[in-house]
Amino acid sequence: MAKTLTQEFTKGLWQEIPPFRLVLGLCPALGVTTTVQNGVGMGLATTFVLVCANLLVSVLRKVIPAKVRIACFIVVIATFVTLVGMLMQAFTYPLYGMLGIFIPLIVVNCIVLGRAEAFAYKNPVLPSIADGLGIGLGFTMALGALGAVREVIGTGCFTVPFGPTLTILSADWYTPFAFMVQAPGAFIGLGLMLCLMNLVPSK
Amino acid sequence: MGDIIVLIISCIFVNNILLAQFLGNCPFLGTSKKLETALGMAMAVIFVLVMAGAITWIVQYFILDKFKLEYLQTIAFILVIASLVQFVEMFLKKSIPGLYAGLGIFLPLITTNCAVFGVCIINMKEGYGFLETLVSSFAYAAGFGLALILFAGVRERIILARVPKPLQDTSIGLITAGVLALAFMGFKGMV
Amino acid sequence: MNDMVKMVVVLTLLAAASGFLLSFAEQKTAPLIEMQVLNNEQWPTLQTIFKDADNLDTLVDQRFKIDLGDDENVTIFPGVYNGEPKAVAFEAKSTGFGGPLGVMVAVNLDTDEMVAIGVTVSQETPGFGSRAKDEPDLANQFKGLGLLQSFSVKADGGDIDAITGATVTSRAVCAAVTSAGETYKSIKPEILEKVKAI
């Protein structure tokens, strides 16, 4: 257990990166990654909830009785999810519109509940924050990467998160393979990325 | 009546919760390795989702809307679902042990099944009446079950095939699901 | 027993804290969210339907609300032509094929005729229902018609040509405009009262 804070943070970025190594949180990974921006936005919203929930659960870990811990986690997580939904509506309304139902669904994202149960409930505050931040940013990277693959192949464009949309593959010679931005493309894209990740050893 | 039939078809096939709306994928990949488990999960989801749909509808219109607490929707619904699942589990254990033996182990998994929570939210977003809510909850759950059972059937065969090592397990599962989703896209023009 | 009490106390406190935090956040973000909805949904439509109005730059700030009873209200945007507030626009809702559908209706206060209409929110199928918002064919048919009547598509015995392949959406637009007419009938005296101040 003698891991340093840096180790707790970086494990989420590679060794345990969701949803590749830690096969959790597939629904948002499949549902919102039609563009890079949506993927990154979803990842950041999840990171916010992860860090806040981990922090609070860790602070309260001695107070929360073991028998009702899941109920307590759910209340904490649902509160932060509602909060992030309100903030996104107030400041990034178009993005909120794109992500739609997947924002309230962070509440049932197994990653968040999983980290509260497996990590924050057993560890002090600082490592818990580092863990939440690492896993969250890893998730953001993964969603951004999947979004990039799907968007570039599917539409020929690349949306810089919170910036302009760039045309990567010119329509003059590239016919967008729209399959990738539709439902089946999500499954197949994620499956192939998972396969690539399996080719690289985890250490 | 015609509207209800359209609703049922669109919820089961066109907007299939798993393959078109991407909700409930964790249990989809987790419980689809065997046909038998898939059948149990499908039944448990239908059972819980219809009840959850009805209760969340009542909570939304008689509590949240009435007292202007719409912003508490997320927290209220997830608590309703979590306690409902717990309650159903206790009830089945005591009263109908036969059914409990079949569905029991799947019930705790349902709390974090985003299909249940997602459908409740979709029902509210679409502004369905009580009857429509019941119908759509059932139809979405049936669509979930259909996709799950079809997928489990395919997966039982994949085990017999020689899959390259990096593609094994979840990876090939996702790609198979993609092909299945492609087949379901054929229903798009139906309604 | 002690455990039981602790469980109940912890859960209750947690739920209370969460409710308190969220109601506070709701109060703080509600006006910001309203502005966002205004900028992203209503403003683009207002720009097209009031494109000839003199007060295009200020009409959002000149908006006012009218109470409809049952805790509901409608936001009215006044349009000034030749120095006088001749028209008002407001939004009416109905349900389309893919979910809620909003239509902004601008009406001439002297003649009760529609200046223009435009779809604000829609989740209709791209390429079919979405044409109600993206193409002017459907909306243009309402121009100049009296608002105080009910509208329906030709298939239902009315006068409006539905968009090919999007009858449900076209019906929803008709329903929204019809309900806008009913709202307008009941609040016209109040509107006339309020626009005097502009």
Automatic annotation (TrEMBL), chain A:
<dbReference type="GO" id="GO:0005886">
    <property type="term" value="C:plasma membrane"/>
</dbReference>
<keyword id="KW-1003">Cell membrane</keyword>
<keyword id="KW-1278">Translocase</keyword>
<dbReference type="InterPro" id="IPR010968">
    <property type="entry name" value="RnfE"/>
</dbReference>
<feature type="transmembrane region" description="Helical">
    <location>
        <begin position="93"/>
        <end position="112"/>
    </location>
</feature>
<dbReference type="Pfam" id="PF02508">
    <property type="entry name" value="Rnf-Nqr"/>
</dbReference>
<protein>
    <recommendedName>
        <fullName>Ion-translocating oxidoreductase complex subunit E</fullName>
        <ecNumber>7.-.-.-</ecNumber>
    </recommendedName>
</protein>
<comment type="subunit">
    <text>The complex is composed of six subunits: RnfA, RnfB, RnfC, RnfD, RnfE and RnfG.</text>
</comment>
<comment type="similarity">
    <text>Belongs to the NqrDE/RnfAE family.</text>
</comment>
<feature type="transmembrane region" description="Helical">
    <location>
        <begin position="68"/>
        <end position="87"/>
    </location>
</feature>
<feature type="transmembrane region" description="Helical">
    <location>
        <begin position="133"/>
        <end position="153"/>
    </location>
</feature>
<dbReference type="GO" id="GO:0012505">
    <property type="term" value="C:endomembrane system"/>
</dbReference>
<keyword id="KW-0813">Transport</keyword>
<feature type="transmembrane region" description="Helical">
    <location>
        <begin position="40"/>
        <end position="61"/>
    </location>
</feature>
<keyword id="KW-0812">Transmembrane</keyword>
UniProtKB/TrEMBL annotation, chain B:
<feature type="transmembrane region" description="Helical">
    <location>
        <begin position="172"/>
        <end position="190"/>
    </location>
</feature>
<feature type="transmembrane region" description="Helical">
    <location>
        <begin position="130"/>
        <end position="151"/>
    </location>
</feature>
<keyword id="KW-0249">Electron transport</keyword>
<dbReference type="Pfam" id="PF02508">
    <property type="entry name" value="Rnf-Nqr"/>
</dbReference>
<comment type="similarity">
    <text>Belongs to the NqrDE/RnfAE family.</text>
</comment>
<keyword id="KW-1133">Transmembrane helix</keyword>
<keyword id="KW-1003">Cell membrane</keyword>
<feature type="transmembrane region" description="Helical">
    <location>
        <begin position="71"/>
        <end position="92"/>
    </location>
</feature>
<protein>
    <recommendedName>
        <fullName>Ion-translocating oxidoreductase complex subunit A</fullName>
        <ecNumber>7.-.-.-</ecNumber>
    </recommendedName>
</protein>
<dbReference type="GO" id="GO:0022900">
    <property type="term" value="P:electron transport chain"/>
</dbReference>
<keyword id="KW-0472">Membrane</keyword>
<feature type="transmembrane region" description="Helical">
    <location>
        <begin position="99"/>
        <end position="124"/>
    </location>
</feature>
<feature type="transmembrane region" description="Helical">
    <location>
        <begin position="38"/>
        <end position="59"/>
    </location>
</feature>
<feature type="transmembrane region" description="Helical">
    <location>
        <begin position="6"/>
        <end position="26"/>
    </location>
</feature>
<comment type="subunit">
    <text>The complex is composed of six subunits: RnfA, RnfB, RnfC, RnfD, RnfE and RnfG.</text>
</comment>
Automatic annotation (TrEMBL), chain C:
<keyword id="KW-1278">Translocase</keyword>
<protein>
    <recommendedName>
        <fullName>Ion-translocating oxidoreductase complex subunit G</fullName>
        <ecNumber>7.-.-.-</ecNumber>
    </recommendedName>
</protein>
<dbReference type="InterPro" id="IPR007329">
    <property type="entry name" value="FMN-bd"/>
</dbReference>
<keyword id="KW-1133">Transmembrane helix</keyword>
<keyword id="KW-0472">Membrane</keyword>
<dbReference type="GO" id="GO:0005886">
    <property type="term" value="C:plasma membrane"/>
</dbReference>
<dbReference type="GO" id="GO:0009055">
    <property type="term" value="F:electron transfer activity"/>
</dbReference>
<dbReference type="GO" id="GO:0010181">
    <property type="term" value="F:FMN binding"/>
</dbReference>
<keyword id="KW-0285">Flavoprotein</keyword>
<keyword id="KW-1003">Cell membrane</keyword>
<comment type="similarity">
    <text>Belongs to the RnfG family.</text>
</comment>
<keyword id="KW-0249">Electron transport</keyword>
<keyword id="KW-0812">Transmembrane</keyword>
<feature type="modified residue" description="FMN phosphoryl threonine">
    <location>
        <position position="167"/>
    </location>
</feature>
<keyword id="KW-0813">Transport</keyword>
